[in-house]
Amino acid sequence: xxxxxxxxxxxMVILGMIWGSxxxxxxxxxxxxxxxxLGALRIVxxxxxLSPIAIRKLKSYSKSDILYLxxxxxxxxxxxxxxxxxxxxKLHSSLAGVLxxxxxxxxxxxxxxxxxxxxxxKSYLGIALGLYGASMLILYSHGGEMxxxxxxxxILPMLGAASYGININLIKKKLSHIPPIEITSSSFxxxxxxxxxxxxxxxxxxKILETPDTIRGIGYVSILSLVGTAxxxxxxxxxxxxxxxxxxxSVTYLIPIFAILWGLFDGEQLETISFLWCGxxxxxxxxxxxxxxxxxVNKLDIKGGKLKKVKI
Length: 312
What we know:
With about 300 residues, the chain is mainly alpha-helical. It has helices spanning about 5-30, 35-55, 65-85, 95-100, 105-115, 120-140, 150-175, 180-200, 205-210, 215-245, 245-250, 255-265, 270-290, and strands spanning about 295-300, 305-310.
């Protein structure tokens, strides 16, 4: 794994602040928009903002590049935009933010199943702890009385985190030769057109004409799209290239902190025991992301003609 430097740490904190704030923006947007309108609009605004960059570059990509860019847009933006919007119809924004922190676990699982990654025993333990903490958090986030329907809604952020995990591996394994801003803009261009067509089929434009307050909801989604989606993904894709997929996904250590703070500020209540389950999730993520133990081995020094001990 590549080592973190000062710039990658700064980018990590900025991303934590941006993405940790996105869940409260979704919550506010849902006051004025339906979940599918919010999800589609989030993609369309980013698509319109980034299209000038994408149009100049798309012709230079191979067919396989365009395929993987489309898959990256689907898994890294389109699917999560809808999954988290529908989840927050029933869940607190803070809980959605905490469940999003499972991204490193699903990054590892996606690498295991699709990209021949070989996790260590410690990583398997981290996966088990993280999923256990998430399960308990879902069951006890409302005093252990969460209904079956709400459990179904709680699965949606986990699916969003799994989608992010697949995308992180896709970028690292299949799109590493493309600059981050091009990955972001081109992937939005591929998914933006169908999202725009879908948006035309909704009641959004009727709402704008009949309910002036809808503009306020569009304002929340615009901030979410331009800052929390487009700009953040450019930063994130840079972070993946600089420090590797597992390190980049550990931005989710910070996301729950900001999500919980925003939720508390907005009057949400988180059960005291929920902090225990959050802690277990973070311990699991730490076990996955923790630095590998260095091994001392003997290696032949060709120039010197003798063995010397080095660390790998």
